[in-house]
Amino acid sequence: MILDKIRQKLSDMPQNFKHIGTYILDHDQNVAFSSITVTSSAIGVSNASMVRFARSLGLDGYQSFKKELQDEIRHQFNPYDKIALSKLDVLPEQKRLQKLLQNEHDNLHTTLDIIKLESIEIVLNAMKNARKIFISAFGTTRHIARVFESTLLNSMNKDIVVISGSVSDYSSLLKSFCRDDVMFIMTFPPYSAEVKHIANVVKESGGSLYLFTDSASCPIYSFADVVMKCSTNSLLYTNSYVGLVSIINVLVHLVYLDSKDNAAQSMRGTLEMEETGYSLINSSEEKK
């Protein structure tokens, strides 16, 4: 988290950076949603000093710093704060609908803008070469993990393992993870505590970790070999998953296109199994 990073580095910063850092810690919400000119003027430093401060934290520049800070501030709001801030309840029904639709459009657009083609290619190649593919998700995202699992099973002749539930539930599956496997982790605010355990196991085994999350505030952000950031901004209670679902859909279709013959054979096998199953069920029903 960017505020924690400032706190950790503050005592060792040059005096001008210490002055900037202290102001940011004391006025984080104002800084997050003000322009660089307004903030630098309030602190009494130049815009260039603000840019250098951001770069000292390992970021590309001030805009990257501001985006990280905004993400962190938004995660501090509880659902009731979000409702109060959105003021959707006082809008006419048509306006509410427009705002909600626009928000989902923005989430999708932002996600697709952030995702790098090189990242997708790295993940795709890793999936092709992996011994097994693991998918880890908790809470609401466990349902999306099952969709990911189902579509991959129809496209690949490979073991797909879903990690979910309590530590006791998934440990028997996780113990088989090795360096030749890949792990997908889906985690969004509030981040599940179990993902830290899973990330540690993956890193200790030397396997690959691919992370679906929303920001660098994610506690396992630094563990990931590739991060696929998905915008999840919501005007009310829950995270938006339109970006996550879209990226998963792209990955599954790329898997299919990359090995059409194998994927088609796998899908035919699934359909044949379904036909056999329904045939047996129907014949049993007829005998009753």
Report mean pLDDT, rounded to a whole number.
87
CATH superfamily of the largest domain: Glucose-6-phosphate isomerase like protein, domain 1
Total domain modules: 2
Identify the CATH class of the largest domain: Alpha Beta
Task: Walk me through the topology.
Blueprint: H1 2-9, H2 15-26, H3 28-32, H4 36-43, H5 47-56, H6 62-76, H7 79-86, H8 93-114, H9 117-129, E1 132-137, H10 141-153, E2 159-163, H11 167-174, E3 182-186, H12 194-205, E4 208-213, E5 226-229, H13 242-258, H14 260-287
Parallel strand pairs: 1-2, 1-3, 3-4, 4-5
Helix pairs in contact: 8-13, 10-13, 13-14
Structure description:
- The chain is α/β, with parallel strands linked by helices.
- The protein folds into two domains: 2-76, Arc Repressor Mutant, subunit A (Orthogonal Bundle); 114-268, Rossmann fold, CATH 3.40.50.10490.
- The chain is built from 14 helices and five strands.
- The protein has helices at 2-9, 15-26, 28-32, 36-43, 47-56, 62-76, 79-86, 93-114, 117-129, 141-153, 167-174, 194-205, 242-258, 260-287, and strands spanning 132-137, 159-163, 182-186, 208-213, 226-229.
- It has a five-stranded parallel β-sheet with strand order 2-1-3-4-5, sandwiched between helices.
- Strand 3 (182-186), helix 12 (194-205) and strand 4 (208-213) form a beta-alpha-beta unit.
- Helix 10 runs parallel beside helix 13 and helix 13 (242-258) crosses helix 14.
- The radius of gyration is 23 Å and the shape is elongated.
- The mean pLDDT is 87.
